[in-house]
Amino acid sequence: MKILQRYFAINITQAVAFVLVAFLALTAFMDLVQELPSVGKGTYMIQHAFLYVLLQVPGHVYEVMPVAALIGTIYTMAQFAQSSEFTIMRASSMSTRMAAGMLFKTGVVFVAITFLFGEVITPRTAPLAERLRLAAKGGTVSAEFRSGMWTKDIVHAEGVKGPTIGSRFFNVRQIQPDGKLVDIRLYEFDLNMRMRSLITAATGTFSGNNTWQLANVSETRFDNSRELPEPGAPLPPGTTIQSSFGLDTASVSTRHLDTLDLQSEITPKILSVSRSDPDRMSANELAVYTRHLAENRQETERFKIAFWKKLIDPLAIFVLMLLALPFAYLHTRSGGVSLKIFIGIMIGVSFILINALVSHIGLLSTWPAFLTAIAPSLLFMALTVGALWWVERH
To answer: N- or C-end of the chain: fewer Cβ atoms within 10 A?
Structure first.
């Protein structure tokens, strides 16, 4: 059986590798076509476009590997059926369970490769590709909103520790490719959501230890911790009084600083993932950002679904490879290899569409994230069991 296992693994791996390369070449070509209109803008030349497309390839490996494993396995099983090799294997006491076990052992390699690209390589190459593209164009990262990118932070009594004393809304108009923040606005509120501080800064640089160094800072504080001064009494320098704030705010003070060290739970990593496509983020990044959103009482369902899909989608390779096993039982009169490959492509496309459809329906219907992520795999697992039952009976 070791020889048979090796024979299965070699043939399936060769077929899957061929299909994978074909899919990657197709997706890379489509990415390059999309980049061509940008060539010539700024210093963005054709070599930058080729490098950008090349850095995007690892992300496509994660996306197309399940379909490549399905089509490659179907091709191998169809070849075995056409040459009657599978019939000889069955006559030599190989059961369906044994064949499924061989496919499972071969699939372990594909699952490991998929996790490697999804969790290690893509989270590094995708941001690098975007920084390269922006640097060549001389541009900056910005959000879809005109006002820039927004995120929420918790204000603690002692830096990032101690009891919670309020919340902070973090607004950045632009993020340069090197991670430098441009045109920053910080809105701080107390526990009763009364505004207590407005900080604006021209730039911000992360210096480590949850500390941002802001430059050219203007800070306006709305204070209600003291009584209004007596009429005619001198005011502290730089302080103005606006009694229209009533009981909520007794005084408004403004100061200007060259630099200001701000301690915040917001880090460059959180900013990078907040503007990233969840499908290009690692499970660890999704877990960190989901926890950050939960602590700030923000919507987390989209990222929870993406997190569970990161863990479950590679395991769907096992399901799709088992779904290819019934094709080995079909005789040549049931259709040639090309027809079976076409059916495999249709099954793979169906899996991608159903996976995306269930994700959107689960998000809209607030289904549990784990159930939303695993539902397509369970559906195709049921289809696999039904197909194996049918070929066994016929």
So the answer is: C
Residue ranges in the chain whose pLDDT is less than 70: 1, 137-147, 177, 224-250, 272-277, 296, 331-335, 394
Euclidean distance between CA atoms 302 and 300, whole angstroms: 6
CA atoms within 13 Å, Cβ hemisphere of 117: 20
The ranges assigned to domains in the chain are: 2-138+301-393, 149-270
b/e sequence 356-393, b meaning 16+ C-beta within 10 Å = eebbeebbeeebebbebbbbbbebbbebbeebbeeeee
> What digits encode the pLDDT tens for the residues 50-69?
999 999 999 899 889 999 99
Q: Which region holds residue 238: left if phi is over 0, alpha if psi is between -120 and 50, else beta? A: left
Tokens coding 339:
């027809």
Helix and strand numbers (H, E) in the chain are: 11, 7
pLDDT at 236: 52
* pLDDT (0 to 100) of residue 227: 45
Q: Alpha helices, DSSP H only, in 241-367?
A: 268-274, 283-295, 301-312, 316-324, 337-365
Nearest to 101 by CA among 349, 329, 318: 318
Crossing angle of the two packed helices 46-82 and 122-137, in degrees rounded to 10: 150
Q: Which amino acid is at 394?
A: H
Q: Cβ neighbours of residue 235 under 8 Å, at least 6 residues apart? A: 229, 241
Residue 261 has φ and ψ, to the nearest 5°, of -90, 120
Q: Which residues contact 302 (CB under 8 A, 6 or more apart)?
A: 278, 363
Q: What single string gives the DSSP state of each residue in 339-393?
A: HHHHHHHHHHHHHHHHHHHHHHHHHHHT--HHHHHHHHHHHHHHHHHHHHHHHHH
Other C-beta atoms closer than 10 Å to the C-beta of 334 total 12
Q: What are phi and psi of 222, to 5 degrees?
A: -110, 110
Concatenated DSSP letters of 3-67: HHHHHHHHHHHHHHHHHHHHHHHHHHHHHHHHHGGGTTSTT--HHHHHHHHHHHHHHHHHHHHHH
CB 142 within 8 A of CB 175: yes
